[in-house]
């Protein structure tokens, strides 16, 4: 416990035992020299300086719960007037065919940490943005202001943890102890990721508080927070895309539905299509002193992959632990 807490205090991503491999030279084009590790200054700057705009939509999640997919779906639907998908006359040059979804929807903590607020100022209205911050950590300018709506996506924690484990072992981190052109690969043991949930250290905090913060607000203020589940979006994408469009005040017209625009968006954002796209099979995202290969955001995209990695006893024990945390809240996975 102490070991995990110490390692997550400065970086929730790394186990102390990890990050042993080094690669050097030309792995990144990011501005050198930062070596920053924690998201806290980004969240503090966000709390102090975020200026809401009418129509703002914030996509919130814990890492590895379908953020990338939600970004693609929300971007494709909200921007369908400017960038029509194929069924609405799109000509094959949709931004999602050229860019990784994270390049279409800015990540707020990263924007503030990397001092790139000008990107937010320049973004056209209505803005789509994302965060991994918990609801109580959001600025009052978001939670107390009617101009900003929030769409939250959660996922079965067992699959979330397996996804994070794979993801972190694909990433590279820059540390201040290395010279400017050197990168250190991140390694993280499965047991550290798994135990970080119980320890309340996944993303530096308890996941049940993260989920319940948004869940409770979605129940109290359904116009403020739309609460989605990865598994439900996978089982019924049409219903969930329609929920998104209605929530952000851009419902599909009958003509759009007849033209097959919903199916077109589902296809554009499908796991297979996105994974195969050149924009996602090459290149990397450089953010907050880390490098994340685009392809690492598209691994399997299925429900229940945890069975291939942990024992039924480990799964059962985590399920029981979390059921107790959610008891009485009305929330179930
Ligand atoms: P797996 O590692 O289980 O495959 P995030 O975007 O929050 O980082 O979450 C990543 C997870 O979402 C990964 O899960 C990834 O494969 C899955 N994912 C990414 N794009 C998807 C899509 N278009 N449809 C379904 N799942 C997707």
Automatic annotation (TrEMBL):
GO MF term (any one): sulfotransferase activity
Keywords for this protein: Transferase
Single GO biological process annotation from the record: sulfation
Enzyme class: transferase
Residue intervals of the Sulfotransferase domain: 56-329
Gene3D superfamilies on file: P-loop containing nucleotide triphosphate hydrolases
Source organism, top-level taxon: Eukaryota
SUPFAM superfamilies: P-loop containing nucleoside triphosphate hydrolases
Keyword Transferase: yes
UniProt-listed Enzyme Commission number(s): 2.8.2.-
Family to which the UniProt record says this protein belongs: Belongs to the sulfotransferase 1 family.
Identification of the protein by name: Sulfotransferase
Lineage: Eukaryota, Viridiplantae, Streptophyta, Embryophyta, Tracheophyta
